[in-house]
Amino acid sequence: MKPLAPGKRRSAIGLSLIELMVALAIGTVLLLGLVQVFAASRTAYQTAEGMSRVQENARFAMDFLQRDVRMAGHFGCVNDQAHWVKSANDLESHFPGGAATSPTNFHVSIFGYEAANTAPEQVVTIGNAATGWNPGLPADIAALGPLPGSDIIELRYLASEGVPVNGLAATGGNTKVDFPSSRSGALTSDGVGSPNLFGVADCAHADVFAAGAVNLAGGTLTSDGADFSTKYTTQPSGQTLLYRAESMVYYVANNVSGVPALFRARYDGVGYRAEELVEGVESLQFLYGRDSTPIIATETPPTGSITMQDVASELGADENEWRRVGLVQVGLMVRSPDRAATTQAAGEDQQVRVLGVRFAPPASNDGFYRSSYEVSVALRNRLFGN
Prior knowledge:
Blueprint: H1 6-13, H2 17-71, E1 74-75, E2 78-79, H3 80-86, E3 91-93, E4 110-115, E5 123-125, E6 133-134, H4 139-142, E7 152-158, E8 163-164, E9 167-171, E10 174-178, E11 197-201, E12 206-215, E13 220-223, E14 241-254, E15 260-267, E16 272-279, E17 281-291, E18 306-310, H5 312-315, H6 319-323, E19 325-335, E20 352-354, E21 357-360, E22 370-378
Parallel strand pairs: 3-12, 5-21
Antiparallel strand pairs: 1-2, 4-6, 4-7, 7-14, 8-14, 9-10, 10-13, 11-12, 11-14, 12-13, 14-15, 15-16, 17-18, 17-19, 19-22, 20-21
């Protein structure tokens, strides 16, 4: 066979310009398809990740809120309403007198602040909420830096676990309390290493006070300006228990990274000490259900029938109105920690609603996934008959 000339051999095994262009076109189409598949997969992953993180954070936040709201009114064997019906002096708060908003006013176990323009049927623009609360915030809560557009709730009660009181002795106008040091862990539960507020209670009386000296290892503490040594029968024949007293605030504020988060601040006798619970909570909303009894007193005990439900501004600063509260509806708006590639809500019917409040999206789509969560919480320590 006669071999091909060198020039002809190169032409036989090479690619023409048309063939090269067709190959490039096919490759480009395939590459664009791969890019679109990757982008769609990435968007779906971001959305799924945002939804799962929102659900996880909401469950965590609701768990904290439900647990503490249910404890409001707990003062030993009987609740604060029962003490009030029997005699207001049977629940004695050994602190200087103050308004219902005072963190040491344990005669008011629950108190709320309604954020401006966040009543049911009102509209809040995300990132541009109206400022202010009704009733107005006291200075110590305002100093916590709560974000506008989110309600605030105060809770006061004795912790769930008590320690037996072995002895009470008067000492210079104060009371020395003896208790088993082996049980002192109940007083430092939930991360409270150095408690300062305490309560002593049995099934007839309750006294809440600040401690002047605390020796948990030695099983002793001394009240600061409170003598209740003769009111109680101590162990083993009595039912007297020592509790840690709780006064706390739940609110929404920006964390150190500038992300809105749910915070809880405990009052330690000097000021509030804030702790971040979970990020991504943009708004807290509360509705308060009240007993049908207009004034809870000895002659008019609560009926246990919740007949009205209002925002905090409707109850105002009236201690009696807050004493009637037996149900709290809690609502959360939670956003994803990171952008989730979500689209802007197209209409009002697609916008997030929390307890009747509609949250309009920001002017430009920020890409965060948002969802709402609601729950009704009965104040178990104020259930009729307790």
